[in-house]
Amino acid sequence: MLNTCHTLEKQGFKVTYLNVNRQGFIDPEELRKSIKNDTILITIMFANNEIGTIQPIEMISKIAKMYNIIFHTDSVQACGNVPIDVQKMGIDSLSLSGHKLYAPKGIGALYVKNGIHFEKFMDGGHQERDKRAGTENVAGIVGLGKACEIATNNLKWHMSHLKELRDYYIEKIKEKIPDAILNGGMENRLPGNSNFSFPSVDGEELLFLLDAKGICASAGSACTSGSSKPSHVLSSIGLSDELASKALRVTFGEDNTKEDVDYLVDSICEIIERSKK
Ligand SMILES: *Cc1c(COP(=O)(O)O)cnc(C)c1O
Question: What are phi and psi of 42, to 5 degrees?
């Protein structure tokens, strides 16, 4: 979203970027105040990929409606993890990605409410009502549809299972590594998301050693991996570059178990103990 906004700015559009608080939430009042006469679009991430913050979507959409502005949300992290009802929530446009909810890679979707005009994003054939050129990826589309159906049916179990693992992990980390800092809050957080900064160990080293133990985690987001810049998300919630570089983001999935969490916590403790010597 940020990069799209930067591109729009290069094309002459004006973009206002909102601040977030320590937990990563925007302030709806700040949003309301930053609306100008010529504002045409509000776009706010439904849920953050790094710290799991779930924004107050219905409050945002109410403000957008009040001023007759189209509201788009990147719901890639939210789809399959929290209930979404575009009509009830007043969402005009929403994007999602298949592989984040167990669909195949290479498929995603853009929802746009009837009556909203938008430009096609590439030229070519007239497929998909002339909005997306190219022969449709039928296998991917069917896979995404099925994944959404399964996600909807499983949502209750999915949420409680992931939340249980996450809360168990957070509790154990707080107990065993008292100087660990939880990034983001506990309220309105994606059920499977955790993000701790461990001041006593180098972030890259921790990831590397966890990987050697068969544990896949990340420092920031995949989109920024390989760059040495601190995560813009962690910077925006007020973390120093130092603590941002020591963040470990762990997201749990449906196949994970409590034993996995035990193994994960033991591994982190062992690595931190060893790095102290
Ligand atoms: C993963 C992700 C994307 C990018 O989706 P891809 O299909 O993996 O390119 C965009 N936004 C958020 C919030 C994400 O988590």
Answer: -115, 125
